[in-house]
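Human:
If only I could read backbone structure tokens as easily as an amino acid sequence. I am handing you a single protein, as its sequence and its fold in token form. I hope you can help me see how the letters and the tokens relate. Thank you; the sequence and its tokens follow:
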Amino acid sequence: MRDTGLVGTRIRALLNPPIGFAHRGARAHARENTLEAFALARKMGATGIETDAWVTADGEIVLNHDQSVGGLPTLSTRRMLGRPIGRLPRARLPAHIPTLGEYYEHCGTDLPLSVDVKDAAAFAGLIAVARSHGAATSLWACHHDAEVLSEWRAAAPEVKLVHSTRLDRLPRGPERHAADLAADGIDAVNFHREDWNGGLTTLYHRFELHAFGWDAQQARHIAELIDAGIDAVYSDHVDRMVEVLAQFSGSGRQ
């Protein structure tokens, strides 16, 4: 077997070792998208952090999964009755919701940061904050619309752009999708872990696109993705993710 850099993988990844993104911070271990969750994920050994970005009425970039806030008990009522972040100034948001600047000040800038840009209007502010902290080159900005990503490319050439979608949402198939992303200068595609297999990672790698897999919660799911040549995984369970990555790296051997 050729040397893949990781122990026992069938297919070589473009990123070696793959990034282990802590989804919304250490979500299985602490309140998601808080400074405490981000810091805990780092302490537990995550090699990347994932979060979600919105822009407030006064232009602050804040990290929260949902568009609306309000302390309501269920997701359905929060969506119907909560107050949209974009209509509120930063000072009126709950105290646990951090700004991107607070994230960098509290957690540092050395780990890759994957940001799901839920509101396209937040992109300019996101880039400005990342640049002001010298962290733009380690930022992976994700969006579900490939055309939006294409528009962002020229505005932020140093930032890595990720198309987050599902395999069954590609009307012209994965090869045309890969070719179009490569032509537009997009850096990665992010599919649900069920979509990936070794043939698909190989296809996207042929176009020099990184292959990311989200919702990898069980150890066997993480292992299957890594074995198939994935370049990054997203998991709520940082402990499982770190353990599996260590097993494939031979506890640090290259």
Observations:
- DSSP finds nine helices and eleven strands in the chain.
